[in-house]
Amino acid sequence: LSARAFFRYDVPIGRRPAGLRVDGSLAEWGDDGLLPDLGQMEGREAFAEVRLAWDEDGLYVGLRVENKTNVTSHRQHPHNAEALFLWIDTRDVRDAHRASRFCHQFIALPRGGGSQRRGAVAWQQPIRRAREASPICQPQQLRVASRCRKDGYSLELALPRQVLGGFDPGQNSRLGFAYLVTDHEHGNQTWSVPGRFPYQVDPSTWATVSPISIYSQVAFI
User: Fold this and answer.
1) By CB distance 3.0 to 4.6 Å, which of 13, 75, 80, 178 could disulfide with 112?
2) Is the confidence at residue 216, as pLDDT, over 70?
């Protein structure tokens, strides 16, 4: 088994960086919100940097991928090119193996949106095998932007609380969270478990993120 599979993770996430604009630049982030590279437990170096922050209005995600020769996306088959997949459980039910109405899946691409298909695009997608389906938001409710170069790209995504059923950091300070970054040159990067685990449908394989600022390190449970 993978070393990651023997642990559960509780990772603190800070508040939205001051002056954050969803414009595809990660300049306002600095190193704030950078999620730890859990793949290092297996000697695997991450090719993508993923950042996560919160405020009372929702969640904010930043992604940076470097060392590429080109950036491409495929809206019909996002797994085949550059894409960010997110899974969020606003109630963090750790023993559930099937998604509830509080579980959400989002997909963001650095290219494929706009009139020229060269801008970022994002949407919500149902989770397979869910015992309860969460409402699917309209794509225009999501704010997404990217900056692409031949040698890499950065992407920002804002998920307002209106699209995150059950999101209430004042009452519930724990969220289930998982991601997948796909790349046609680098391959795939997952977070809490390796790719052969059913993280796409099983919330029990997701990590916990805590949208509070009193913690200072990852907790292994």
Assistant:
1) 75
2) no
Amino acid letter for position 129? R
Q: Distances from the Cα of 12 to the Cαs of 34, 49, 85, 145, 176, in angstroms? A: 10, 16, 20, 25, 12
Number of alpha carbons in the 13 Å side-chain half-sphere of residue 181: 24
- Reply yes or no on whether the pLDDT at 22 is more than 80: yes
pLDDT (average), residues 63-71: 96
What is the pLDDT, as a whole number, of residue 112?
A: 87
Q: DSSP letter at 192?
A: S
Does 220 score more than 60 pLDDT?
no
The SS3 assignment for 86 reads strand
Q: Is the pLDDT of residue 221 over 70?
A: no
Contact 175, 90 (CB under 8 A): yes
Of 167, 97, 169, 180, nearest to 135 by C-alpha is: 167
* Mean pLDDT to the nearest integer, 81-91: 97
- What does the chain look like in DSSP terms, one character per residue? --GGGG--EEEE--BPPTT---SS--TTTTTTTBPP-GGGGGT---SEEEEEEEETTEEEEEEEE-S-S-----SSSGGGSSEEEEEEETT--TT-SS--TTEEEEEEEEEEETTTT-EEEEEEEPPTT-SSPPPPPPGGGSEEEEEEETTEEEEEEEEEGGGSTT--TTT---EEEEEEEEETTTEEEESSS-TTS-TTT-GGGSEEEE--SS--S-EE-
- Amino acid identity at 79: H
